[in-house]
Write a structure and sequence with these properties.
It is a single chain. By secondary structure, the chain is an alpha/beta fold. It has three domains: about 150 residues, Phosphoglycerate mutase-like (Rossmann fold, 3-Layer(aba) Sandwich), CATH 3.40.50; about 110 residues, Nucleotidyltransferase, domain 5, CATH 3.30.420.40; about 180 residues, Nucleotidyltransferase, domain 5, CATH 3.30.420.150. The chain contains 16 helices and 17 strands. The strands form three sheets. The chain has a six-stranded mixed sheet with strand order 3-2-4-1-5-6. A six-stranded mixed sheet has the order 14-13-12-15-17-16, sandwiched between helices. The protein has a five-stranded mixed sheet with strand order 9-8-7-10-11, sandwiched between helices. A hairpin with a 7-residue loop joins strand 5 and strand 6. The longest helix is centred in the middle third of the chain and has 20 residues. The radius of gyration is 26 Å and the shape is elongated.
Length: about 475
């Protein structure tokens, strides 16, 4: 047998990390050590990588996993403070395959003592510095010799704050979207990578409410590819979440399970209210809304979320089946939209808002913050019209009159005309008139002065929630 027994690389100081203990990440020096360890071990015939569930251990072997193409298998028996009998059980079951095991100092000490009691020759008192490893070898399933390799030498780098790299896989009704971002325990989120694949999943659902088999296969493969992108970006934690399309489809749970198997992490199907709360949490963090009541609006492909609250509490939340892709599929067949189709879309929105409009008007929330693909598309069009930088979306505002005029122009235009509009992106050109009409009607029915655009939304909310979970 051959076993490389690693202690995790240098981690962020405990005093710097205010999140859950198991999520304390490596510091910058630790990441350098992890990459050096991968270079040392990648060509040694490793066929299996086991790790403690602790993030700092999984981060230590992540570069090795990337170099070898092997998965990292988290095993609770390697956790800090795990039951020693179960740890011995794991040690006895490692077999003769070349393995890498990454865990904690005390766990390594316990394993070495276990092997020493069974004949392992260790001439020196066992040491175990962070980023070091023991190589144990033997002819059968029990090691007879041990060799210690000290940690790679790097000048220590004190990062401003320890970070965790999250990857959120947002399985939406219109598109599958991957966000990879670095986050600190105090909620600072910095984007690293974004990828999007337009699938129009919600529009493919059949009359019996199911996602067709061929579409299911495409969705699973798309999710797998995005999961690979997250892995190549060295994501520490992958968080797949599904929204309206899989929430509503009769086979949505089965599709979500298949996607979970493809990416190696179970897919969480969000309820409409969970989706609303996560989005509003992102608004709170990004826009610092303070003590005044604000309204959050998230228009997706399958649903519309409305949330009112301040920086401490949520007063009201609802999820309505008013997504842009959903209403487009139900009511719009012409290009440009016919007068009857326009009336049908507006009637659907008015009907769904009827129970809430009076209360929202009475509360008079300010600001009204909006996010989602349609809102960002409208913001780009408005910025382009004013000759502004199209990257200045966040915090920009569209008043009610400007939104009404923009929606009118979009509804009356043909696809070719929309594609010629400065700021228009091809993948949104067919749905944006319907989405603009939905938002215009929402603004009118709720008596809003306009909309403030947020470039944070559900995906950032998922990361903020993960940081808070223990």
């Amino acid at each position: 047998m051959k076993l490389h027994l690693l202690r995790h690389a240098r981690a962020a100081k405990r005093a710097q990390w205010t999140g859950p203990a198991w999520m304390r990440p490596l510091c910058e020096t630790g990441h350098e050590q992890a990459r050096a360890l991968a270079r040392q071990l990648a060509d040694r015939g490793v066929v299996r990588i086991l790790s403690s569930p602790a993030l700092r251990c999984r981060q230590t072997v992540a570069p090795l996993a990337l170099a070898t193409g092997l998965p990292v298998v988290a095993d609770e028996r390697l956790a800090e403070g795990a039951d020693e009998a179960k740890l011995h059980e794991l040690g006895d079951a490692l077999g003769d395959a070349t393995s890498v095991v990454c865990t904690h100092g005390e766990t390594i000490g316990a394993l070495l003592e276990r092997f020493r009691a069974r004949g392992l020759a260790i001439e020196e008192e066992p040491r175990c510095e962070k980023g070091s490893f023991w190589t144990l070898e033997g002819a059968g399933e029990r090691p007879q010799s041990a060799r210690y390799t000290g940690p790679p030498a790097f000048a220590r780098v004190d990062a401003d704050a320890p970070k965790v790299r999250f990857a959120v896989l947002d399985l939406g009704s219109t598109s599958f979207h991957l966000l990879v971002a670095d986050a600190t325990a105090d909620g600072d989120v910095r984007r690293v990578l974004r990828e999007r694949v337009m699938l129009r999943l919600g529009a493919t659902i059949t009359e019996d409410g199911a996602v067709p088999d061929a579409v299911c296969e495409r969705a699973v493969e798309t999710a797998r590819q995005l999961g690979e992108s997250a892995r190549r970006a060295h994501a520490d934690v992958l968080l797949p979440v599904a929204t309206a399309a899989l929430r509503d489809a009769t086979n949505g749970r089965a599709v979500a399970e298949r996607i979970g198997e493809a990416v190696g992490v179970p897919t969480r199907i969000l309820t409409g209210l969970e989706e609303a709360r996560l989005t509003f949490a992102a608004f709170r963090r990004k826009l610092k809304i303070g003590s005044r009541l604000a309204l959050g609006i998230d228009l997706g492909g399958g649903s519309l979320q409305l949330i009112t609250g301040d920086d401490r509490d949520v007063r009201f939340e609802t999820s309505l089946r008013l997504g842009a892709a959903r209403l487009h599929a139900l009511h719009v067949k012409s290009d440009p939209m016919s007068r009857d189709e326009k009336r049908a879309v507006r009637a659907a929105v008015r009907g769904a808002l009827a129970d809430y409009a009076e209360a929202v008007r009475r509360w008079d929330p300010r600001p009204a913050i909006a996010t989602g693909g349609t809102m960002r598309a409208l913001a780009r069009l408005a910025l382009a019209e004013r000759g502004r930088d199209l990257t200045e979306i966040h915090g920009s505002a569209i008043d009610a009159d400007a939104l009404r005029e923009l929606a009118r122009r979009l509804v009356q235009s043909k696809q070719s005309e929309r594609l010629a509009m400065p700021g228009m992106r091809r993948q949104r050109a067919d749905l944006v008139p319907t989405g603009a009409l939905v938002l215009r009607t929402v603004v009118e029915e709720l008596g809003l002065a306009g909309l403030t655009v947020a470039d944070w939304g559900l995906r950032e909310g998922v990361i903020l929630e993960a940081l808070e979970r223990v």
